[in-house]
Amino acid sequence: MPKSDPVLTQSRRRGAGDATETLGEALAQLTKEGELYEKLPDGKVRCYACGHRCLILDGYDGICRVRFNRGGTLFVPWNYFGALQCDPIEKKPFFHALPGTLAMSFGMLGCDLHCGYCQNWVTSQALRDPMSTAPPIPMNAERFVTLAVENGADTVTSTYNEPLITSEWGVEVFKEARRRGLHTSYVSNGNGTEEVLDYIRPWVDFYKVDLKGFDDKDYRQLGGKLDNVLKTIEMLCAKGFWLEIVTLFVPGFNDGEDEMRQIARFLAGVSRDIPWHCTAFHPDYKMADRDYTRARTLVRACEIGKEEGLRFVYAGNLPGKAGDWENTRCPNCGELLIGRSGFMVHSYRLTDDGKCPKCGTVIPGRWDAAKTRAAVERFGAFDRMPRAVRPY
Ligand code: SF4
Q1: What predicted TM-score, i.e. pTM, was given to this entire model?
Q2: Percent of residues, the chain, with pLDDT higher than 90
Q3: What is the 3-state secondary structure of 320-359?
Q4: How far is the CA of 103 from the centre of ligand 1 (A)?
Q5: What's the gap in Å between 66 CA and the centre of ligand 1?
């Protein structure tokens, strides 16, 4: 094996006797053979579910710890969920996909990155951080989608941890969701490969990428590579996913104006129609010593996004504190099209065919005026708060 191979030196042998072993053994029962990999000589496998492209020896895990090689076969998560919640789709955040509706959200366990400010670390860092001990909820896809329908969701979403690393299971769930007339989405860190995007493309409607900054050195601290995320964003756009981007601005980490401008310039170069969500950080996990992001930081990021040519830029996580930046306005005439505060949609004025009612400009997105109006009417302010779902 080549000495410089980062994967072989970072992956771990199963059953190493550490504090996460019990959870690891439980998860190992909830697996099946994966599809996003190739078998190699001497019992090795190459996984391409995410941009790490782990080369995994027999008896070892991939970097994500939830895909593992046993006897020359790659086993992947199956038939369980790590967290369930019915959320407003604005919480994902998607602002140009069925606004006002609900997204039945599920997380799994594990992640291919290890961000120190992760807000879902209890599930995402399973098998890596001994404090992350959320148990799996065994459940099949049919039961989950039934819960989504019973809770009034129009979309099911793989979120809370990195969905790419459980793409075989995600597709299984989404096939059932489509059969029941629901939309589907990924909330992802964007550390993708062409193979995994082609694999999920027939089954995923909306895709959100968390672009964490524009500094490769910082990205490597989190366990990723900037260039791979940028390439994934370009591929998502070219392959026709409905794409929105979020950047969480962490004070002192990625909130400099130069970096904001680099992000916005890159996105505008891919497509000026990509909505960019500039969201506020709250102290969490290993970055509990930082300050909260201020509203003026988000407003400045939004201004820079517009200056660089993006047509739709939003401020998130500080409802009511960032002026007009929560609303959708027509990029041609400035007409207010969708009024929001936090996760609430309080006005929707697009025409049924997704145009500005005043000047007729086509507004990019995945719209369904009937669904939005029905949802806004049906779910009041209280009901549109995220709510935990009882699995049984
Ligand atoms: S999903 Fe990514 S981190 Fe996990 S085994 Fe595959 S390539 Fe490695």
Answers
A1: 0.91
A2: 70
A3: CCCHHHHCEECCCCCCEEEEEECCEEEEECCCCCCECCCC
A4: 26
A5: 8
